[in-house]
């Protein structure tokens, strides 16, 4: 391995370190938890002032609304439980809200620690903030300026039972109604399906044009999504709110400091709140050009450097001031699983994060979306164990990258064989740096060696390797997927020893078995590649740095790179010991006159040095005169 190649590898390592440092958790100021009473946009405040001044007050309806909201005693909330093949959920009569939402196929990170493993409610992921009473509410302003949020209203339902179970192609519809007067009411009608994560929600206004002021109402999701992973910092890194509009995904991400807010106007296809593996999406059936969306997010620090991000999202829906209006929505609450989200044909799959390493998402996403992820899903159809899938995956990727790695290893091998001749040149022309460089380039021409030949193939591989890096960190299929032995969760580090302190810079306090194995394979790779005595420090430095870096990474990612390194060692060994594969130096019959890019660089540098010397001589002569 020549000096340029070594520098390239060091730069790649430094880039990865800088990226990790930039994405590592920072101490964040403690933000006091504020009670989220209403999600009121600036347009609503303006609307109240304008409409109360322009539109005459309707006294009777206004009094009935005020009495219903502020003076009527609240009834005990009635809970309806619905179970299908994928979820078990609860609806509450208070606000006709979704109160709880359990995913039957996904368990909590602590499910093995629960005293009663058969306790469904204690062992399965639940995504709704039920401590706030649930979510999915409406917000509007009355003609006398009152702000109405339906979470405060007691709805009545047409349900005849409190427990329902549906399966397969079955469906179930439950209607909640709140009456403001004899023929003035709001309905929230839910339709559930036996084999889906989503539901259909119909919002119906009957004779509400006499009461509602303005030209719009809001559909709210006020309390975000529950955090359900052990590593709160990593989960928070992937948490945000989103809107899909105009064929593009708009992300809202809270950082340290003040809460973030964002308002969008125009046609909104859907809004969403998400954490690392799960999302809540609200999509209007017929988005309007006169619609809009509003978001609010905040970051909260937790003990032991933990953190949470909470987001509220609202859709502005045009109100047509007629005596009857019905708007329909798809409400998806479930996993961020690419093929599942894509099946809805509404660009839900845009939520899937393929990474944006160094701003290269335009290159990384297509590689992951159209090549790597489909291959990963395809392999699992035949291989049930995801650990084995990763091993087979690494073999296939190694085969695909073989032309690049072969050229890289051959070039590095030739550079190793050339080192004795370069050493002779250094001794022969000791102190004459320009002459040494010139004679070295002649050697490269004679034997047809490209000094950058070992570096460029590696750089060409980087988009695929980085795409895999990002993909395996967010793929929900690896969540809690076991491999064997101590590797019980491919989405988390395979900890074999817990330290009582944190290693400086890297911030880790655990030892990962696969990270150690990865470091060992990297050590052997370096030892096989580096023969220059002046570069021997690299044999030890790079494996140690990368081992510490990978200690906190998911075991699935480490398993892939460990296998990839093993295959690379085997490939490099064969090239180093096979004749005709870079195992010997053979002079080229017709060396290129131009000498390539590196040769031209050296010639340019030599000319500049001569020019500088001539200028120095002229300067000395002028001083003497």
Give a written overview of the molecule.
This protein has 625 residues and is an alpha+beta fold. The chain has 15 helices and 22 strands. The strands form four sheets. It has a nine-stranded antiparallel beta sheet, with no helix packed on it. A six-stranded antiparallel beta sheet has the order 6-5-12-19-18-15. Strands 4-3-2-1-8 form a five-stranded mixed beta sheet. Helix 9 crosses helix 10 and helix 9 (402-428) crosses helix 14. The radius of gyration is 32 Å and the shape is elongated. It starts with a helix and ends with a helix. The relative contact order is 0.09. The model is unreliable at 1-11, 18-44 and 46-65 (pLDDT under 50).
How many DSSP E strands? 22
Average pLDDT taken over every residue: 81
Principal-axes shape call: elongated
Q: What's the number of helices?
A: 15
Q: Main β-sheet: number of strands, strand sense, barrel status?
A: 9 strands, antiparallel
Q: What class, by secondary structure content?
A: alpha+beta
Which strands sit side by side, in order, in the main sheet? 7-9-10-11-20-17-16-13-14
Keywords:
disordered N terminus, 9-stranded antiparallel beta sheet, 625 residues, elongated, alpha+beta
């Amino acid at each position: 391995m020549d000096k340029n190649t070594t520098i390239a590898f060091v730069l790649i390592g430094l880039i990865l370190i800088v990226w990790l440092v930039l994405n590592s958790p920072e101490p964040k100021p403690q933000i006091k938890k504020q009670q989220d009473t209403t999600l009121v946009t600036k347009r609503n405040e303006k609307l109240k002032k304008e409409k109360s001044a322009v539109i005459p007050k309707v006294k009777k309806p206004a009094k009935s609304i005020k009495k219903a909201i502020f003076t009527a005693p609240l009834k005990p909330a009635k809970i309806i439980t619905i179970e299908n093949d994928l979820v078990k959920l609860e609806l509450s009569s208070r606000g006709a809200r979704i109160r709880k939402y359990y995913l039957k196929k996904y368990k909590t990170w602590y499910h093995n620690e629960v005293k009663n493993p058969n306790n469904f409610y204690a062992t399965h992921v639940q995504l709704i903030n039920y401590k706030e009473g649930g979510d999915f509410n409406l917000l509007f302003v009355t003609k006398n300026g009152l702000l109405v949020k339906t979470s405060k209203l007691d709805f009545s339902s047409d349900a005849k039972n409190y427990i329902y179970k549906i399966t397969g192609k079955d469906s179930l519809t439950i209607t909640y109604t709140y009456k403001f007067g004899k023929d003035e009411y709001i309905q929230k009608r839910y339709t559930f399906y036996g084999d889906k994560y989503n539901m259909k929600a119909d919002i119906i206004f009957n004779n509400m044009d006499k009461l509602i002021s303005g030209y719009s109402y809001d559909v709210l999701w006020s309390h975000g999504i529950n955090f359900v992973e052990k590593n709160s910092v990593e989960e928070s890194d992937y948490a945000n709110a989103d809107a899909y509009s105009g064929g593009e995904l708009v992300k809202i991400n809270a950082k340290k400091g003040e809460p973030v807010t964002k308002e969008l106007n125009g046609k909104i296809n859907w809004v969403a709140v998400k954490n690392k593996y799960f999302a809540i999406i609200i999509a209007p059936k017929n988005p309007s050009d006169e619609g809009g969306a509003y978001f609010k997010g905040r970051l909260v620090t937790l003990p032991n450097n933990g953190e949470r991000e909470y987001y509220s999202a609202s859709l502005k829906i045009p109100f047509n001031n007629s005596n009857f209006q019905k708007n329909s929505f798809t409400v998806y609450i479930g996993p961020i699983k690419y093929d599942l989200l894509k099946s809805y044909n509404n660009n839900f799959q845009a939520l899937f994060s393929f990474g944006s390493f160094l701003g290269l998402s335009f290159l990384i996403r297509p590689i992951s979306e159209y090549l790597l992820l489909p291959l990963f899903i395809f392999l699992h159809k035949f291989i049930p164990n995801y650990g084995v899938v990763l091993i087979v995956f690494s073999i296939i990727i190694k085969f695909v990258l073989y032309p690049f790695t072969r050229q890289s290893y051959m070039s590095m091998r030739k550079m190793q064989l050339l080192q004795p001749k370069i050493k002779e040149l250094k001794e022969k022309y000791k102190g004459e740096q320009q002459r040494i460089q010139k004679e070295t380039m002649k050697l490269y021409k004679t034997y047809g060696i490209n000094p950058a030949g070992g570096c460029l193939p590696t750089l060409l591989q980087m988009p695929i390797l980085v795409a895999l890096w990002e993909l395996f960190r967010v793929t929900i299929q690896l969540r809690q997927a076991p491999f064997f032995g101590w590797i019980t969760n491919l989405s988390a580090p395979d900890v074999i020893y817990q330290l009582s302190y944190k290693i400086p810079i890297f911030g880790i306090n655990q030892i990962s078995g696969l990270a150690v194995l990865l470091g060992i394979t990297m050590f052997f790779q370096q030892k096989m590649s580096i023969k220059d005595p002046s570069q021997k420090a690299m044999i030890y430095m790079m494996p140690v740095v990368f081992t510490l870096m990978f200690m906190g990474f998911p075991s699935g990612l480490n398993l892939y790179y460990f296998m990839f390194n093993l295959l690379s060692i085997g490939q490099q060994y064969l090239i180093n010991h096979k004749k005709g594969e870079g195992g010997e130096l053979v002079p080229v019959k017709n060396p290129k006159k131009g000498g390539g890019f590196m040769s031209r660089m050296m010639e340019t540098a030599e000319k500049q040095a001569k020019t500088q010397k001539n200028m120095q001589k002229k300067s000395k002569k002028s001083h003497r005169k």
